[in-house]
Amino acid sequence: MADNVKVIIGEKNGVELDFHEEYVLDAENIPADNVTSGLTGTDIQAQLDELAAGGGTGASPGFNFGRSGNVSSGAYLNNETVPSNITGRPVDLTDALITQISVSNQNSNTFEIAIEEHDGTTYTELATISLTAQRFKKQTYSVSITTGKELAAKVKSGSAKNPVVTVYVKGDAS
Length: 174
Hints:
There is one protein chain. The chain is mainly β. It folds into 2 domains: 6-52, no CATH class; 57-173, Jelly Rolls (Sandwich), CATH 2.60.120.40. 7% of the residues lie in helices and 59% in strands. The protein has helices at residues 34-37, 44-52; strands at 6-12, 15-24, 57-58, 63-66, 70-72, 78-79, 82-83, 89-90, 93-118, 123-144, 150-161, 164-173. The strands form 3 sheets. Strands 3, 4, 5, 8, 9, 10, 11 and 12 form an 8-stranded antiparallel beta sheet that branches. A two-stranded antiparallel ribbon has the order 1-2. Strands 6-7 form a two-stranded antiparallel ribbon. The mean pLDDT is 87.
């Protein structure tokens, strides 16, 4: 059995306290960074519980979209060999979130990629990532995706040469 430990706090956030405060060292009392971790819990215990429950199923290595040649503004990237606005990547996860988007292209180009969800008729933009004279960029997100919809990727503005986009998704198997 672990010892129950308390510590005395004399300073908080760089400010000395006029009194001493007791702090119980339990996992639920210790704050956790849920932005960097990608988990939803705000304390250590909540994050441990989330990890023990599986922490969500990841789409590994992610959903990929790409297109060969020069790709101009408004053009959709392909899902395998099919334009992703016609048949996108199905999202078969519940409580699905886009956690990261990575983009690479052949040259140092300036362009913006939009990730959309759709049902073949209605298209909703979920996230964008902008590259400025870059070959590669990755960015973290926490964007909800509707279960049963499909994901598509398109060049929203500018142009890219041989772009490849990877969308990392986390959720629970349905």
